Amino acid sequence: MYWKYCFLLISLLITTEAVSQNKPSEKKPEIKELDEVLISNNAVQKNKKEESLNVETVNNSFIQRNLGGSLMQSLQKLPGVKTISIGSGGSKPLIRGLSFNQVIVVENGLKHEGQQWGADHGLEIDQYAVNRVEIIKGPSSFIYGSDAVGGAINIKPLPLPLQNTFGGSVDLTGKSNNAQLGSSINLFGRNKNWFFDSRVTTMDYGDYRVPTDVVHVYSYAVPLYKNHLRNTAGKELDFHLSTGYSGEHLKSVFYFSNVHTKSGFFANAHGLEPRNVDLELHDKSSRDILMPYQQVNHLKVSNTTSFRLGNHAFETQIGFQNNFRREYSHYVNHGYMPPIYPEDMYAPQDLERQYDKDVWSFSAKDEFRIQNHQITVGSNVVFQQNEIGGWSFLIPSFTQFNAGLFAYDKIELNEKWFLNGAVRYDYGKIKMKSYYDWFQSPVSENNQTELEYLQRSQDLTKTFDSFTWSIGANYNPGKLSLKANLGSSFRMPIAKELASNGVNYHYFRFEKGNPNLDAERSYQLDLGMEWKAQNFSFQLTPFVNYFPNFIYLNPTSAHDIYYGAGNQVFEYEQSKVFRYGAEFQTRYYFLKSLSAEIGAEYLYSEQKSGSKKGYTLPFSPPPSVLFGLNYEPQIPFLKEPYFSVDYRFTAQQNNIVPPEKKTAESHVFNVAFGSKVKTGKQDISINIQIQNLFNTRYLNHTSFYRLIELPEAGRNIIVSMKIPFSVSR
């Protein structure tokens, strides 16, 4: 394992050498240059006018003003973007109703590879280390390859420090609902060409509170002590380092990050039966982390090098990731497991599951211009290896290989018309290993019963390949911008969908894979209309989407007899699915300092074949509308002060698929205010939010805990402060 961390030592040595070689410079740039955003803003607007995909871009200020328990919770104010939340500290992206491995996350150009984000798996991203995020709504497989069927979250690299500077910042955060205390320290430096940028983040939070004193876990009433959701506390420790060289024709950056989290699962809804939980033990403290809990460590090391040769701009990236996930729970003998855990077992008694996933990747692309054509060609190769451990089996060990080639052309007909076209070829191969139970089960055959070690998975190798394409057009006549994009997407099934065969104790169900699944395909038409005037703007983005073979975990009427005392069996199937929807945003300025905004979203999905024909898809978000009012007055000694209030109306969701339950409508108010305080040459940012102002009890249809009628978190006061410091050299 130690070789995986050699890259860290090398990066630290490079950083030390770069700093030691810095020489005093006569140039002393003013710190005010850090505040300039005109160039980046213009680049964002230019990109939206020239690209046919629907892309939303937010910066660090947006994230800080809307700080949630995780990055995705901080982004869900955007129409079309939701989360599947797991408590207060974890969540995964949900774009236009699609999630899991149908949406990808890219950080610093590297596709984030966790454990494919099961419903109880959060996203291992430090939101304090995020500067700018692009949210691509709609298929983007031709850019990022397989899995980008529903969209992508692209976390852009941090801007390089200015030449001859040394500085950093300190972020402090406190939250009332779960008594969270968090801090993040950033330190950067650069001479003329060599630079480094580092960050350490730590968080510690207790059990979060909900506006109820009892919840019903599958018809069993569970009392909550002081409204705390017992055992949902957690800790996080993250480290980031980027270092390298930036010259006139060459830039090479090494990225290193390690995100480590430990968080508890709601004790009454994971692993143990709800009535067997030791309430007195759990309720002694709201900050301890008892079983069941999870520990996840995600390591990333990569290098991105870009250089120019004549008319060509080349970029290469090589990366390594390791996702090490362990889930701990009291051993409970289900089915034919021995009542007493064997002393000679290969796994510790409390280690329910373990996944150890290594990912190696390489990509290269070349961007060049021929007359009015801006052409990009590229390729990528990814190899994954996943090993399993623990006493509970769900998916087998596997290896996976993916490779792709793509070509993209943007044609500028004139200053108003742009055409886009892309083609891509993908190839994938997955090889899964056999697995036998570590305990014996009785098997009856010909009126005789014998004890056998049952085989849970077989050696299985599957290959997939596909061509995908995309065509689009943009028309920009003055204040109006119109766009259209038609594209196809491809996603090869993952090991869980092909070969799972075990009890998911978090859901009290038996999940069974289907080795006969075909690659998932999608066709989508995206439209966009945007109008921008001096005091008024609006944006409408409708879409139509068709899956000829959507992969779906279908509940059946069968129940298992070997594991988990008769859990209901869920099997992976494929069906035709038709979806359509739209997002709408508008903003009006009554005064230069007073504005109102509305953001709305609607989604409809229906299965057109299969055993659930006529039903929708799981985790389908209901329609919602967000009304906001923002006031930015001029106040002496304060910079960019703001006061905002928003009200979100979420309609009832009656269009469900069993075993989901209908969700009532909800009305939630939030307020926020903050400012930058001038202190010498630096501006200290202070932001305060009050989420769920009236402590409203409501259910979130896309929450991991929705099935047990668990309401969302109660009132939460969030205070964050950013204190920058710098030294000109």
UniProtKB/TrEMBL annotation:
Family, per entry: Belongs to the TonB-dependent receptor family.
Signal sequence, start to end: 1-20
KW Cytoplasm (keyword) present: no
Official protein name in the record: TonB-dependent receptor
Residue span(s) of domain TonB-dependent receptor plug: 49-152
Keyword field contains Transport: yes
Origin superkingdom: Bacteria
Source organism phylogeny: Bacteria, Pseudomonadati, Bacteroidota, Flavobacteriia, Flavobacteriales
Residues in TonB-dependent receptor-like beta-barrel domain copies: 234-693
PROSITE patterns: TONB_DEPENDENT_REC_3
InterPro entries named in the record: Beta-barrel_TonB, Beta-barrel_TonB_sf, Plug_dom, Plug_dom_sf, TonB-dep_rcpt-like
PANTHER family: HEMOGLOBIN AND HEMOGLOBIN-HAPTOGLOBIN-BINDING PROTEIN 1-RELATED, TONB-DEPENDENT OUTER MEMBRANE RECEPTOR
Keywords: Cell outer membrane, Membrane, Receptor, Signal, TonB box, Transmembrane, Transmembrane beta strand, Transport
